[in-house]
## 1
Amino acid sequence: MSGRIRLGIAGLGTVGVGVVRIVRREAALLSARTGKEIVISAVSARTRDKDRGVPLTGYDWEDDPVTLATRDDVDVFVELMGGSDGPAKAATEAALKAGKDVVTANKAMLAVHGQALAELAEGNGRVIRYEAAVAGGIPVVKSLIEGLAGNAITRVMGVMNGTCNYILTRMESAGLPYDAVFEEANQLGFLEADPELDVGGIDAGHKLALLASAAFGTQVAFDAMELEGIGRLTIEDIRAAGDMGYRIKLLGVARMTGRGLEQRMAPCLVPMTSPLGQLEGGTNMVVLEGDTVEQIVLRGPGAGEGPTASAVLADICDIARGVRLPVFGQPASTLAAATPARSVTPAAYYLRMTLQDKPGALAKIAAVLGEAGISINRMRQYDHEGEHAPVLIVTHRTGRDALDRALSAMERTGVVKSSPVAIRIEEV
Amino acid sequence: MSGRIRLGIAGLGTVGVGVVRIVRREAALLSARTGKEIVISAVSARTRDKDRGVPLTGYDWEDDPVTLATRDDVDVFVELMGGSDGPAKAATEAALKAGKDVVTANKAMLAVHGQALAELAEGNGRVIRYEAAVAGGIPVVKSLIEGLAGNAITRVMGVMNGTCNYILTRMESAGLPYDAVFEEANQLGFLEADPELDVGGIDAGHKLALLASAAFGTQVAFDAMELEGIGRLTIEDIRAAGDMGYRIKLLGVARMTGRGLEQRMAPCLVPMTSPLGQLEGGTNMVVLEGDTVEQIVLRGPGAGEGPTASAVLADICDIARGVRLPVFGQPASTLAAATPARSVTPAAYYLRMTLQDKPGALAKIAAVLGEAGISINRMRQYDHEGEHAPVLIVTHRTGRDALDRALSAMERTGVVKSSPVAIRIEEV
């Protein structure tokens, strides 16, 4: 490689355009920092004739991203098309086989094919960098793989989907139900073409799966993740949680336990006064915990042209500076297959239910919890009209199995109006 | 260099012992991640016969750190002695000249001699890494130099002295005066041997100077920093600031302005609801702002055996993985001499004064501010007994020059009891 790093950029949406913009505007800065000239050889996108607000006439155009990825004058293939399969994967594979390094923002592709792609890259002496795939502009992959390299990582947590956090924040502040805020977010263009990627937790789950692999030295195991979206959260739960001093977040948590790798992307209660509890709107936050560093919290914009392009450029600069690390921090061939463990770490739970307002109803619920070995930390019964009484319970730490037994037993008591809502409280 | 990285560790205080502990405990993990065996060849400290709680018998002992630094069986000299000059500097120079890389936690040495040492290192093809020198376990040097490499950095801010933040937090929560909490902190062993390094803002200033150099491509210019400690802060100011919705922090701020490099480590007001405002106790926080990434906030333990040793190990792992970057992100020979600019960026200010309680006193103050072109955002006069009335003023944004003129003019009015307190309010 000469004194230049030549990019081939596939995908000219918001992020692609942002990358072109930075490469043009910051040429002198990038060259001072990397000792290399960073130039764009060619670009590719679905439609050629479209004003993207940035001049592209100096770059060759390729209709086919695979052709782009394998051009002789491309050193680094920048994949910003998205999608777990299709052209993104085909072009990434072609680039690696042709001896190109790859920088991508594609969490879906790496969450599904990360192990195979990492093996392909490392077999060819190439790197795949994906800082932009996780938590936008926050340098979290770097902080985890490099900054905490001296730690046995104990837990990785994160709020990593800005749209979900926007929806939950807005429900709380405006007192609006989920459907109304979902519609608002849709109108504002905050949602992916398939909204389930956002609100179903899939997008955030992809990100967590990548971090878990890097944290624990395991093969990416997105399929083994416990995944639950925010679509069933109600304004009642947001208010009730607030009343108990908590906020509800779509929180990813990954832990290596004695029984295997626990990965969960699901609504969780966190203390309102904690950094995670205070996170509002589209901002992302990742918490990294290690045996020696204790806890590091990283906060920043999780999406958008600038922040995501900033992460893409960081990866490009690393390549220009000769930083070459295995995709997941240690060689892909040495990553262990993850043994999935579902919710083995005990936690306190928030329970909300509506009881029939008759003598002994609450006693029956308390008895059921007691029989399952679950003790009650706090309980509130709210003022009500009519024959149904809203009740909130915060339990002490318990296993998920015991909780599930108790929830089933509650339904059999005949005193609960409908299935109780149970949400995990993560200790942060 | 073979498949081993051989360390020579000088300084076996808390951090040095922490490094030895991690190298022993995490040998397998470190080797999986770096592809190298990380071993300790020799150690050095002031006193040999002392139980440090970790076995040292497997390592050669050197009384002289210079001898340690230049041993044939040392690849990386780990400097954990401290002090800007003396043995730390002598041994670092000797190591670099002998072709060793250097990892250090020594902010004082780099703040004073950073440019010369970086030139020496780079002239010899060596690296100096200092993640542990800034904000303990937080990977802030890495985030700035590598993670935000695609950004023109616009501002760097930080609370980077845990002792000062502990003192300020404790004054507020316990309602105690500075002297009492200082004494407490001293009893608890939180203070440096020379407490002025902590409470005078010098230690935090050293850290900010290093970040500013990496952020703006300028030679380290600690001498040009505006420096003010926390010793003159009163419980009255902490309370009054709180009453206006602010907290007082020893905040470092570095900015490149049209008139030069602004670096200030001084007490500042920040909104109580901001991440900086909510930072309590010994925790550190660094805020990095760039033209594309917007704002990244990093939070974590700023000191202590584990966190600081974690940062030292990250640097060692980077060296083992072949990551070799210029000390301040671009070659030392290309760093520009900084043109110091003192407080050129306008800011709002908090003013606290005691006025004589007679007709027209407040009008005179308001007139003085108006004549200096400073407008008042909020003003409170407090209930009082006797003839002196406490008054708080929050100004709109103004230049420091105008403020200084107004402060002098206020004293000449004859209605202020003593010199008004003025503290900058940093927009965060």
## 2
Amino acid sequence: MNIDLYLKEKANLINQELDRLLPEVELKPQVLHQAMRYSVFAGGKRLRPVLFLATLDALEEPSEPYLPFACALELIHTYSLIHDDLPAMDNDDLRRGLPTSHKKFGEAQAILAGDALLTYAFKLMVSPKEKGASPEKLLAAIDEVTDGAGLKGMIVGQVLDIQAENKEIGLDELQTIHRNKTGALFAASIRSAAVLAGCNPEMLEKLTGYAENFGLAFQITDDILDVIGDTAKMGKPTGSDQEQKKITYPSFLGLERSQELARESVEKAVQYLIELPAGADPLRALARQVIDREN
Amino acid sequence: MNIDLYLKEKANLINQELDRLLPEVELKPQVLHQAMRYSVFAGGKRLRPVLFLATLDALEEPSEPYLPFACALELIHTYSLIHDDLPAMDNDDLRRGLPTSHKKFGEAQAILAGDALLTYAFKLMVSPKEKGASPEKLLAAIDEVTDGAGLKGMIVGQVLDIQAENKEIGLDELQTIHRNKTGALFAASIRSAAVLAGCNPEMLEKLTGYAENFGLAFQITDDILDVIGDTAKMGKPTGSDQEQKKITYPSFLGLERSQELARESVEKAVQYLIELPAGADPLRALARQVIDREN
């Protein structure tokens, strides 16, 4: 299984669909559509849509009707980045080497572009009904996403992250922040696909175990890359966590133990998939790849 | 038909349901739940949920399973006010006589409380499936709301409103702004209820005609109240439009012609309901009441 090729193919598929769903020209007001499109196409590995599609593959469910749903997950991720970068939040001027939305379009438009992406995401999640998707399953999948993006996940993580600023927190609290802020949307991407594929409760639990360990490995690797990564490949200055005295896995555990923990999490993630056939190879490879990436 | 009693009963019903859906204590992070609840319970006539329920009544559809859906409309309205009040947008310190969300909780929490209300609204819209609501109809109703709150309505109106600042605009442009910014969510409240009630396309068109004229009468009256209203009853200083040189109906048409136009819009709105039985009396009374209100 060539995971790089798989990732590339799926990312291309998602990018084509995003291009169709977020047309560049003519739509009014132009600045709103430009701002939405700008941030969505400012890079990104499309990891959440890819996890969603790889889960459908693992469960042998055709993915074509659900491409807009996969894109919705990327729109939600993008809206969260736009709002997170705002002056009142992280106040970041650059993201992936480009000016952030509020630097490019002004703060009001950035807030509204985020709001619009979130709202439009729900329109996209509804849309597979036109291609014959089961309405019951769609509703259940949308419910998964509202939890992961909202009060049982991402927004909670954002609030906890803000509360932790300039405070001494422990490893437990750090994990709670990441599990909510990043992990929950990964989990929702996987769980919503599982629900759409009509997965049984036992397998849903196992895929959730995969998702949680995937998210942990992802976050630890993020922190490690901030210490040892290459600024050019990261699209942002490395070493910034240490400068800002941010609590990270390496600052708690040291670099070596952090790398070990990331590897252990990957192995745990893969272990959860042991009953699944070859269709789950992309999910397995994705977990291994998450700690080998350079950005 | 006693419209004041009807309004009061429905608003009580909505407030009880909102109280249940947004519990005050124990949920973490507390500040997030406090901020969500604060703005939702900072007053408001619950007009969008009431229009939603009155439409169900008009079409003789039981409303009980859809109470969370009705509340979702209020959450979306509330999130839009929180974001609209932000320093980067209208920069308002007071709303309905109380400190705005960012004044009370800080800007970051206000942004996140808005995001959380919007996300949670979709969870509530999904939830009537547990009470046996048709999944197909729920998806179609959610789609109506994504349009009205998003790229075919409210957010477009916000962007147009920002673009019109410090510019000379015409009456046409003023109407386009209001139709999107305020009218579209009224229309979505009515159309989503109609879709849930299984309404036929002809009646859906008529209810949309009602909604558009209702929205117009509402907005004209808002502008008139800013000229002649009572500061205490409005919860904000009147005369502010004129001070800020905002373009309004009275500034275009004069007070008398504006009042006339509001009356005409109400009569048109009511005319659209002519085929509907006594169950539509609340919708009729609501339209008449919208120009007689004092705040």
## 3
Amino acid sequence: MKENELRIFCPATIANVSCGFDVLGAALDSVGDEMVVRKVPEKGIKITKLVGQDLPMETNQNVAGVAGLALLAESGSNEGFEIEIYKKIKAGSGIGSSAASSTGAVWAINDLLGRPFSTLELVKFAMEGERLASGVAHADNVAPALFGGFTLVRSYEPLDVIPIHSPSELYATVIHPQIEVRTSDSRKILKTHINLADGIKQWGNLGGLVAGLYTEDYDLIGRSLVDHIVEPIRSILIPGFDKIKSVSKEAGALGSGISGSGPSIFAFSKGEATAQKVGEAMKQVYQKIGIDYDVHVSKINSQGIKILQ
Amino acid sequence: MKENELRIFCPATIANVSCGFDVLGAALDSVGDEMVVRKVPEKGIKITKLVGQDLPMETNQNVAGVAGLALLAESGSNEGFEIEIYKKIKAGSGIGSSAASSTGAVWAINDLLGRPFSTLELVKFAMEGERLASGVAHADNVAPALFGGFTLVRSYEPLDVIPIHSPSELYATVIHPQIEVRTSDSRKILKTHINLADGIKQWGNLGGLVAGLYTEDYDLIGRSLVDHIVEPIRSILIPGFDKIKSVSKEAGALGSGISGSGPSIFAFSKGEATAQKVGEAMKQVYQKIGIDYDVHVSKINSQGIKILQ
């Protein structure tokens, strides 16, 4: 590898994670994009390749470009960078496609500049990519992509991201039914008010999930993966959702839910073998309904973005 | 001590704990009641002494009596017990006065019967005492009194209590302004619906608090002790509340909030010296207003109920 160039793996991420709506996220290990970021003499940022998805390449229309520019503006640097993006995550699938690109850009540029910024600062720059992608500068995908493992976005003002311990045998299975659900649509159908009683259940479950992650209590993780607020509403947009949940449970999954704003559905399992079995069971549901799908099985990635040789 | 008799310490408890409304609680170490529970030939339960508070002594009107009877009914035992209660926690103060009595009864009776029941089962019996005291069989005081430390009541159906790690240097300061706020009143003024946006902040903070407790990150514990839902409403019933909060913070407290349904106010600090300073600052507020008060400073009790020699 050349000195002024980085080839990196940018992980897919599961946001919301059931009871953790808008605050929790987790990074995947074997699902993600690749990017090459290269220092060049010409100032600014140029997207020189974008393979695998039909997305805009103009710097200020591309999430990696916008996130990178936010970093450069703050750094006062006069350097220039070329970015090649090899998309393997499908846009709109609900596993953080835009977050992978924007975090990859800021992580690599920061590294090539000699790391002037902290990981938390990188989250802020990457959030500008999310603002471009969805209209909302949310952090629940970019935070786990940058920190790795599970992250809790405790607060936005000021931004406070808490990395949460990830049990070593925790695996995710994600199935992506090839239907389109726009983030803006799936946000629109949410209610602005909730029952206090449902809220209490939700923060009880989130507390249980965080405790289960720290104590590596897989059973507690499973019991806590219940969403009383968002899943009952959003799952209506996802065909076969209830069936996918029930077959996952029967195949041994700890629990399951909507990944991000959907349409992907995730399940957590203890151990890879169970996660694979869950994937097989999920597949059969969509094969019967006749919906195309992708299935991913991955360990939770504790590192975040990784340099590839 | 006689073979068929136990003298025990029954801890005061802080329920709700700011962002943990209706799910979180913590046990105190140096504030609590004493009880003597004695096996006697006569079947059933008799409250033979009740010192320090004016409370009913008829078994089925007394929280310790009712909780003990719930245990005996389930056990099918023909044994009988006498209970002496030495109240040091004031009823209605918001630090689990009824929970101390009901948990003490079931813990000691279970011990004298050879421990047929698990701690979780004891929580269920003690909840019957809470039902008598407040009309609601809540567990957020009785769970920490029985398990010790911090506990999360993740769910009621089925009952799921999660003991949460307590950092070793965590101290509580509690001030009890001697005004009456009935639990039923302070529950009545709560709204049945909340903003989703406030809910998200609340479960973000609860997740942060649980993470802070496990990682012994005192600063994170402090940042997470924010209640967007209940405190803004209930604090109206507590004179000087905002001032108590601000002087606590200035004196070095990590954070503060309403203990249970009030009127007591708690603050957490790192180390006993700071917790004492916080107590002094709190006192001055009520001295100025002219309200009588009690102040307690205590380590978080990791053991729960303790046998006294």
## 4
Amino acid sequence: MSATISPLAPKKYPKMPAIEGVRIATAEAGIKYKNRTDLLTMVFDAGTTVAGVFTRSKCPSAPVDLCRQNLGQGKARVLVVNSGNANAFTGKRGRETTSMTAAAAAKAVGCSVEEVFLASTGVIGEPLDPGKYSHLLAGMAKDARPDQWSEAAKAIMTTDTFPKVITATVKLGDVDVTLNGIAKGAGMIAPDMATMLSFVATDAPIAAPVLQDLLSKGTAKTFNAVTVDSDTSTSDTLLLFATGAAAKRGAPEITDPKDARLGAFRRAFNKMLKTLAIQVVRDGEGARKQIEVTVTGAKSARSAKRIALSIANSPLVKTAVAGEDANWGRVVMAVGKAGEPADRDRLAIWFGDNRLAVDGERDAGYSEEATSAYMKRDSIVIRADIGIGRGKATVWTCDLTKEYVAINGDYRS
Amino acid sequence: MSATISPLAPKKYPKMPAIEGVRIATAEAGIKYKNRTDLLTMVFDAGTTVAGVFTRSKCPSAPVDLCRQNLGQGKARVLVVNSGNANAFTGKRGRETTSMTAAAAAKAVGCSVEEVFLASTGVIGEPLDPGKYSHLLAGMAKDARPDQWSEAAKAIMTTDTFPKVITATVKLGDVDVTLNGIAKGAGMIAPDMATMLSFVATDAPIAAPVLQDLLSKGTAKTFNAVTVDSDTSTSDTLLLFATGAAAKRGAPEITDPKDARLGAFRRAFNKMLKTLAIQVVRDGEGARKQIEVTVTGAKSARSAKRIALSIANSPLVKTAVAGEDANWGRVVMAVGKAGEPADRDRLAIWFGDNRLAVDGERDAGYSEEATSAYMKRDSIVIRADIGIGRGKATVWTCDLTKEYVAINGDYRS
């Protein structure tokens, strides 16, 4: 946690309701941080289904390996998350740590080790001693309460400056079901699962394969469309839990991803993922401005997304926004370097509603004054129309400031 | 030009000899900068051959278009370069500017417009008025002198903090021939022709197709293996001119790239490109440290280069080096995100001679003290052995500092 809260932090946070079938406890295990919580235990009632998406890194963390393995069963009873140490690139000892943690967690809640899910975030390469926290799990499982969602979001923070929480209530059939989500950023964030950690739970009765379908489709335009610094973490994990408790109140059991009754739920879930993903960007390390990049007129949606990410990951574009400089020439550069089909002489560029370039050159009607005023906002929209097709994509990022360099220049020490 | 010279600037500069058949003039045209030269004219004797490599950007500048067009003839009589305005993304007016400049230059030296080569560097998207400098070309062509190489290097600088010059003399057959090179960086530097502009000239009598072969092969492990910020310019241009004047002194005319007599020349040329490319990195915007990244044991050389660039372009690796922090976990991350074949449990990482990780975890013999001392050096070598093949590659970059953000946060204004 940083001393300075991001200027893009929400003005207010939602009051997080309970999700029936989920109980939460946090603790100060002192893994790396002092005087703050760094351990989260989330206990699920029997019958809870689970789905997950993970980093595409070729060097995934030990907890990611464990989650992938346990996901096959589609059942979850407990989630244990620590901050301060990623248990990544820790070799055989890393696997011993996840085994021992899973055993302790399974014992604490009385389930099998295949129903345990783990996530760790923080420094890479330092061995994580399970002795620091595994003795706490039994007590946490016993003391866990349904009203601890905000505390959960705080316990998983690293360089985040604010906790990320969101809640939604929607109809499933005729019955209200609730979705709660938490996430943490804030550096080493790039597509291929953008946030390092995010957890969503609902009381809706949804089968694991349907959850997985919701999750896999939902991430493409949300978590996989945000980038802070183009650096993909070893630990990115997004888990979705469904306790099914709403079935008692008459919510229909959903076993088919095409079930029409899932519509409102899917929309609410996707909106939640988008909001959490954008919160991660708004708390990007050193972020002072949110940047939305939309590319239209590309050859395909896939091509549009690649161009959009080329713009969003360009250090020169990001530093220009930090300097409140409408340097659209750098957007031209980023379009040009993306390697995707483009025609220089058809390209048009907007910052907000200000069209700066059209037909391959500066817009004659371009107003430096209006654009400079626009650049002072804390949320900047960049649009590039490639002019050769119908492909469209939007991604989100933040500016690149001196604070990013300061935060990352001495993070480990 | 920046007020503060890079701490990585050369301690001394070579005295640049003349190249027979090349005359140089510089001038203060006031295109953007004041009280410094910003215009370079290089005049070549009749019979000079030329080769070039250019940016792969889909949005190339107007001068790049013109050079590509004129290269077909393989003959050069004059090069005109301006700094302060890139004449990129300037549409029809940009093409008019290159046409008018080429016409004025051709008239000044008495050659055809197809024998004119142009390069422009600076801001993108601002129209470049040829009226600002085209009237100067006739006088410059007349006053041009062979001993102006250092002045030439200064006139093409933008945010560079020192001029980049190099010279070499080698045998071609039994005759000494000379190679002179200049380059400018310093931001918007990434593979796909790394420097924005570099020009090399020799008095060796070498046919244009042979020059092109030398150049295309020479850039792969030199200019195309350096990166400052992963941003590829619209204007990257490297031109190689051969006046052939040494033929009078008995140097053999080289018309076949496989000619054995070319060996020493090729080696000297490649070394020159490497030195110029590394100088560009050492003058990268805000650079305080040079970083050499070598990847060994990858599946192929191509795979090794991709992994090396993933490490070299990672903002988290670059900020860690800036902070003198041997944060090898970020190297693991960068290997993992490269998308190339890798086996976490075979990976080994060195900073200098300090092996920090081996067999997928922290090296038991790792000394924090020795490594911390090493990180204080101004040239850092990172090596990652992937452990699965024989592919090898080396790339060069610089650290990412607050100064980079400062330089690029208000460059245009």
